[in-house]
Specification:
Structural class: alpha/beta
Oligomer: single chain
CATH topology of the largest domain: TIM Barrel
Number of domains: 2
Keywords: Hydrolase, Metal-binding, Zinc
CATH class of the largest domain: Alpha Beta
Cofactor: Zn(2+)
Largest sheet: 9 strands, parallel
Bound molecules: guanine, zinc ion
Distance between the termini: 9 Å
Shape: globular
Number of strands: 15
GO cellular component, one term: cytosol
CATH superfamily of the largest domain: Metal-dependent hydrolases
GO biological process, one term: guanine catabolic process
Organism: Caenimonas aquaedulcis
Mean pLDDT: 98
Length: 425
């Protein structure tokens, strides 16, 4: 066992933040040998219970749960900042040509190393990740994540139509490859597999049906896709699947909505879509920097809360513009506030932070496993330096309460504030 003394942030079951100004985090193996949080709370209350345990003192630092990115594309590192008039030309002109390079295993391996380094530098300790349609891209990422001991979930993209040579896969083979990857990686250490239809327009009915059959055979495997991001994309999906009630219900019609199914964007929904998210237990990966960059629209937080479906935060790099959870939380605040196209709401800093940690874990069906620092959680955490820049130091020193402290970090923070990311401490 070992312990860390610092300010300590974690979340209660009702999603409110719990903050110990002078806290203690004790980590060590559980009965199965997993490195977990053994105790968390105020230093004064806990210190006497752990005689002989070495305590690392981190004055003026905040220990917080490692961030979880609910939706990111590992092969789109170099696509960040590619301008386009909207999603579909962005995919065609930048994303597909770039992803075609990942048939080269050595290239995929290099990028996987850079990607994981970049996640950790930004304090992201777990992610639900798209690879490319090439199975070797999944192997590259999983191997890299396993080497670092990270809880990573990823999948080979399914796209057997409306995709150029180099990324288009073949229906039968794509399903055989997916099953082989599930068997190789799902539950292998901390790794998990996600069945990954890119989006309905890129998949034939046969491929979606096959994906749904795999999902039924492997009920604890994740599912990830995109939905209702952009108006042109929605019109296209409706045209291709006229029998489905809405774009979202295409996925339901093929058995792809359930607990552990995570849909990126979920912007242009009606209340029936929201009710379908709720009744199936699927979750939204809200991707605000991507939605602002690609001009896709604004996630309706009021609708999500009113109907009550699960949602959490995601970078969606490379549609998204930053790996930084601080930037994503700030963009989510802007998106929430927008009140011209949907009701504007002011998301609290505690809620924004929850959406990127314990809330994201809940969306993944991993509450109590990651995204929090309550006893029993896997000990993935970050050390934040609230004085990392002159302005941050000045502003956080004036914070009169936890909300002011968290908001200062959300608005002014970036990778400079992440001093350390600890995996399975
Ligand atoms: N829809 C289908 N593919 C993609 C992708 O790579 N990024 C985003 N943002 N939307 C998509
Ligand atoms: Zn995406």
């Amino acid at each position: 066992m070992r312990a860390f003394r610092a300010s300590l942030l974690r979340f209660a079951d009702d999603a409110s933040a719990v903050f110990d100004e002078d806290g203690l985090l004790v980590v060590g193996p559980d009965a199965q040998g997993r490195r977990v949080v053994r105790a968390a709370g105020s230093y004064q209350a806990l210190a006497g219970n752990f005689p002989g345990v070495a305590v690392e003192h981190l004055p003026c630092r905040i220990i917080a749960p490692g961030f979880i990115d609910l939706h990111i594309h590992f092969p789109q590192l170099d696509v960040i900042g590619s301008p386009a008039p909207g999603l579909l030309p962005w995919l065609e002109n930048y994303t597909f040509p770039h992803e075609s390079k990942f048939s080269d295993e050595a290239y995929a391996g290099e990028l996987a190393t850079f990607f994981v380094d970049e996640l950790l530098r930004h304090g992201v300790t777990s992610a639900l990740t798209f690879a490319t349609s090439h199975p070797s891209s999944v192997n590259a990422l999983m191997t890299e994540a396993q080497g670092r001991g990270m809880r990573m979930i990823a999948g080979k993209v399914l796209q057997d139509r409306h995709s150029p040579d180099g990324v288009r896969d073949q229906t039968e083979q794509s399903l055989v490859d997916t099953e082989a990857l599930i068997q190789r990686w799902h539950g292998n250490g901390r790794l998990g597999y996600a069945i990954t239809p890119r989006f309905a327009p890129s998949c034939t009915e046969a491929q979606l049906r096959g994906a749904g059959e795999l999902a039924a055979r492997y009920p604890d495997v994740w599912i990830q896709s995109h939905v209702a991001e952009n108006l042109d994309e929605i019109a296209w999906a409706r045209e291709l699947f006229p029998a489905s009630r809405s774009y979202l219900s295409i996925y339901d019609d093929f058995g792809l909505m359930r607990e552990r199914a995570i849909y990126a964007h979920c912007i242009h929904f009606d209340d029936e879509d929201r009710a379908l998210m709720r009744s199936t237990g699927a979750a939204a990966a809200v991707s605000p920097t991507s939605n602002l960059f690609l001009g896709s629209g604004f996630f309706d937080y009021e609708g999500a809360r009113r109907i009550g479906f699960k949602h959490g935060l995601a970078s969606d790099v490379g549609g998204g513009t930053s790996f930084s959870p601080f930037h994503t939380m700030l963009a989510a605040y802007y998106v929430g506030r927008e009140g011209q196209t949907k009701p504007g709401v002011s998301l609290s800093p505690q809620n924004l932070w929850w959406q990127h940690t314990a809330g994201a874990a809940q969306a993944l069906g991993l509450d109590g496993v990651v995204g929090n620092l309550q006893p029993g959680c896997e000990a993935d955490f970050i050390v934040i330096d609230p004085k990392a820049t002159p302005l941050l130091a000045r502003k956080t020193a004036q914070a009169a309460n936890l909300d002011e402290l968290l908001f200062s970090l959300i608005v002014l923070g970036d990778d400079r504030a992440i001093e350390r990311a600890v995996i399975a401490g």
